[in-house]
Amino acid sequence: MTSFAKIVPALCGASAALFFAAALPAAQTPQKAAAPAQTPAPAQPQSRVLEDAAYEDCLALMRKNPEEGFAQAQLWQATGGGLPAAHCAALALVEMKHYADAADRIEQLLPLAEKQAPHLTVALLDQAANAWLLAEQPQRAKQLLDIALKAVPDTPDLLIDRALSLAALGDYQAARVDLDRVLGLDPTREDALALRASARRQTGDPKGALEDTETALALNPRLPEALLERGILRFEAGDKKAARADLIQVRLIAPDSAAAISAGLYIEKMDVKSD
User: For the domain 154-221, what is the CATH superfamily, name and number?
Assistant: First the structure.
């Protein structure tokens, strides 16, 4: 029987924390919610074409050349590649920034996963949700994460992803509730601390927000999201010199990140006000 242990690479969390720090996209029209997963069917024996080596080769090609990887995955799927081939094709679409198409394809894998690899169903729900977040459709992302969390409550990564979707919908109070749950399970989650700091700032609690950023930075002094949040808090408190230092640090540490983009916007805002 084929093992699909590596079929879920790190798409989870791909929607960066900038849903908190930057201007949020408007919520899209909700799509029809997926039906709750049925009781998983026993895993069925797979054909040799579904071996992990073929999947890993597909992923390697997809990372090197997404367009070629997508074409190869499509060909593999047409010749019996099944779940791994279809999943590799969806991930190639993520690399190509066709996020909505990728999210839809991952969702379409769920019935097949329930039959062939039921242990992957929750991870695929999370991946589809993250792709919908990247496609700026947070309502659909939240719907899928609600389903996933019914299956495995109090899962920190799922709670963080749902907090991101809630923040993208402008519901920072609900996002904070999910992040409180995460930090109740693991107080050392620096990413959750940085995100909760943003949620606290957005809900009128700058003191609590600063406490969370300082705790996060005590755990990881080079965490871009925490530095960004502290820079925003300092800017809003009128300490432009300290704010600029934090924001510049974000751009030095992670120059190609979404956090660096937001840091640049705040630096520009400071420069405009100075002029």
Answer: Tetratricopeptide repeat domain (1.25.40.10)
